[in-house]
Amino acid sequence: MSVPGRRKAGGEPADHAIGLGPIKSTRIYEEIVRQVKQLIADGRLKSGDRLPPERELAEKFVVSRTSVREALRALESLGLIEIRPGEGTFVRQVSIDALVAPLALVMTSQREAIGELFEARRLLEPAIAALAASRATPEEVQEMERILDDQAREVAAGRTGLAQDAAFHTAIGTAAHNRAITRIVHAIMDLLTQSREESLNTPGRPTRSHQDHRRILQAIARRNAAAARQAMLDHIVAVEGLVHGRTPERGEGGRRAGA
Predict the structure, then answer these.
(1) Lowest mean pLDDT among 5-14, 205-214, 216-225
(2) In angstroms, rounded to a whole number, what is the distance separating the alpha carbons of residues 127 and 231?
(3) Which domain, by its residues, includes 212?
(4) Closest by Cα among 218, 207, 227, 100 to 164
(5) Is residue 204 part of a domain?
(6) Which of 1-15, 30-44, 131-145 has the highest mean pLDDT?
(7) For the chain, what is the domain count?
(8) Per-residue pLDDT averaged across 195-217, rounded?
(9) Among residues 91, 125, 149, which one ends one of the domains?
(10) Distances from the Cα of 148 to the Cαs of 74, 218, 248, in angstroms?
(11) If you placed Cys at 62, which of 22, 66, 131, 134 could pair as Cys (CB 3.0 to 4.6 Å)?
């Protein structure tokens, strides 16, 4: 059987043989949703592709039009398709944010997941800092300098500088010029907001955080990817140690994990 591919001239869907089969599930619309999601995941349905009309889908799936309608509503609520009155039903661009949101929902109330999130940070953020060292524009480096100047003033006034802490990590992500990876890191950082607040409320931590950030920025400004990677890893290991109520041993995060 065939399902839509890219639209042809005149708005007609181009058919590609992708092997849809009759539905056997008792909850029919869920099986339709599953098949369409799989086609999107496999890349056989892409952003901008137009699905066949409701009647044609019902014939291809060998189900009622009511089941097709329910499935389309479910797919639309998931953000996978867009129903445009008078035009048809189209596959939407699936964003990284939409993929990460369910992760956030599951993990926000699970304190034990913090260790796993830090593990993700240790894997991702040093690599992103290294990318920033290779790709940051002079304007982006200047923006990081401005953020750290603001953080220094906040810390000197006895405050945590939490907003500047988040802004600095966001700026590094921007300077890496890889939107997919940086959005994932930003989602992880959002999940760790409470733990970051706790670590910055530890005596001496805001000053240490600012010093860590300066070291990271110096490496980025020097275009030294290896140094930026190491500085970010050391910073994350130090913060993780505070969140878990321990001081990282020397060498745990690399050359200077406990520095």
Answers:
(1) 5-14
(2) 11
(3) 97-243
(4) 207
(5) yes
(6) 131-145
(7) 2
(8) 83
(9) 91
(10) 45, 11, 25
(11) 22
